[in-house]
Amino acid sequence: MNAAAEGEVSIETEGDIVLARRAVREAATRAGFGVTDVTRIVTAASELARNTFQYAGKGIMHWRLVENSERHGLELRFVDKGPGIPDVNLAFQQGYSTGEGLGMGLSGTKRLMDEMEIQSHPGQGTTITVKKWRKT
Amino acid sequence: MRKPAKGAVIDLPASVTSAPLGQTSDLFQLLVDNIRDYAIILLDPKGTVLTWNTGAERLKGWKAGEIIGQNFSRFYPPEDLAKGKTEMELENALEQGRFEDEGWRVRKDGSRFWANVIITPLLDKQGELRGYGKVTRDLTERRKGEDKVRKNRMNNSNISVIRVRDLLMVTMPADPDDPTISALQDKVLTAMEQHEAKGVVLDISSVETLDSFFARTVAETAQMVELMGGRTIIAGMRPAVAVTATQIGLTFGKIETALNVDRALDLVANKPMPDQQP
Fold it and tell me: Which residue of A has its CA nearest to B178?
């Protein structure tokens, strides 16, 4: 059987954060990332999944293997229809927190991944996309 | 197929074993017809439903007239059909002499139940395949129970707190969920008080992911332990976890760290716990 190249985990309970981590760990390992990068990606997924659960109540994490002309990588996309992030730039600053984290959530996640993009519309929801490329 | 009156009671005569063949096979038919907890059906070699009993109707929702003559693939969810599961089951049964499976099956109304299925090929004296016997049980309730047990196991039961002399050895599971992490503080502080412990060695050598929530809980727990006059040593952080924690900007403040539990105990031996210092 061919291994899946994409998948999704719905995030509706605290237990789903664990399921999201497991799915990402499996995908990242299969994509050929080394143990440190796998840990980085899973940690980023954990921060973002909890972010979704805490601020939006529920949402979905999509993962998929990606490639460009030079490299292979893994993309994670967290989609929710929650309240949105009022000031995306502010949210990236270290120490910024409206919830119960250390205020490391988004800024820390950005340092763990190679690319990060946030689309947020107050009242409509947030989509956060992160990518990690395999070192060749 | 004969449909006996609902709730028919089968009185097995004492002489059943010596009864003429016709009589026992009639009785046997009655038995199969009336069993409520098992769907017992006959399929032809291609999987067409030939017979239907009370249990099948109860389990799957179709009445005999609605399903006899149709292929047994009606009982399977689309994702299984896409994989050719029904053909595979019959082939396996024929090759192995028996096929057993547990999985989701579909009722007439489209709802699903967790089924245990046993398919047995029926060969005549010449070894010719005449059809298949199929016995199905509904294990949905049992599965729900197992899910619950699995969920519980995934949760709190995984933090272990053991007292060694005046120390608490606290071991975290590999991938704790948030409620488990939240319970850490309570467990440690309760045990500190109960055992009048002087310190805590927190073994995180199994931990694969240390995110900001986990780190914050550990830091806060250590602070509380300090307020209670104790000392916390984090032992066994994996290299990949340490790299990630540093990169994300997590710090553990004044908490001591050790390569492993042995080194943590050395630390304690070389530097007495706070209230033993002069």
Answer: A14
- A-facing residues of B in 204-243 (CB < 8 A) are 208-213, 215-216, 238-241, 243
Contact B209 A102 (CB under 8 A): no
A112 inside 8 A of chain B by CB: yes
Q: What is the pLDDT of residues B171-219, one digit of tens each?
A: 999 889 888 898 899 999 999 999 889 999 999 999 999 998 899 899 9
Residues B233 and B167 in one domain: yes
- List all residues 6 or more positions away from B8 whose beta carbon is below 8 Å from its beta carbon: B30, B34
C-alpha B236/C-alpha B259 separation (Å) is 5
CA distance A133 to B52: 57
For residue A77, the domain's CATH number is: 3.30.565.10
Question: Do the interacting molecules here have an ipTM over 0.95?
Answer: no
Question: Measured between CB atoms, does A88 come within 8 Å of chain B?
Answer: no
B98/B130 same-domain check: yes
Q: Does residue A50 fall inside a structural domain?
A: yes
Q: Do residues B163 and B68 share a domain?
A: no
Q: Which domain holds residue A92?
A: 6-133
Check CB contact of A111 with chain B, cutoff 8 Å.
yes
- Domain of residue B49, CATH code: 3.30.450.20
Confirm if B49 and B71 have CB atoms less than 8 A apart. yes
